[in-house]
Amino acid sequence: xxxxxxxxxxxxxxxxxxxxxxxxxxxWPVVESVTPFRGAKTAMRTDTxxxxxxxxxxxxxxxxxxxxAILALDEEDRVVVLRxxxxxxxxxxxxxxxxxxDVPGENPLHAAQRELYEEAYxxxxxxRVLTDFYPTPGGCDEAVRIFLARDLSPAGxxxxxxxxxxxxxxxxxxxxxxxxxxxxxxxxxxxxxxxGAFALTAARATEGGLDALRPAEAEWPARPFTx
Length: 227
Hints:
Residues 62-196 form the Nudix hydrolase domain. By secondary structure, this protein is an alpha+beta fold. It has three helices and eleven strands. 16% of the residues lie in helices and 35% in strands. Strands 7-4-9-8-11 form a five-stranded mixed beta sheet. A three-stranded antiparallel beta sheet has the order 1-2-3, with no helix packed on it. It has a three-stranded antiparallel beta sheet with strand order 6-5-10. The chain is globular. The protein starts with 29 loop residues before the first strand and ends in a 12-residue tail after the last strand.
């Protein structure tokens, strides 16, 4: 009673830093790598990987440039959301503004500012990093950074000319508790919206609150960038 055991092969010799778990960089040798498909924005790759026991196995995954998303809060503490058609899942999903890192080495803050302007015609006076994550690390190398944007105002100047799915987008503002409730009820499914809403709720409950969030240009090892 009162004891626990670790599964065979589990490394229990390295305690978490400061009592917290931390992901670490690792690399298993790649014997061969081929790219059988290249699309407009992403590609599919097959790596033949040598395992720790010496065996080799193929690992298929999508190669992705990375993305940014923006949880934008207005003066009434409501979140800016968009509804957009997503063909892969055959649904119109409520999402937060987001987009690809179109240029290798692009500063993610600059990309986020661009996406907030293009999708919501807004600019923000205060930016913070809310959280970073890998949406599907089992089959895609996409890395996503979610920003918190506050002190919103109209972007000014010419509006972005939307096309394709973006031309059909709807814009709304919703309270944070409503988003959390919708996610828990299984009514909202976009990963950036769900994780962003939960992360903001958690950040407000921690010591230091939103002031303790990382600065907007914090280091991002998953997608190194230049100023």
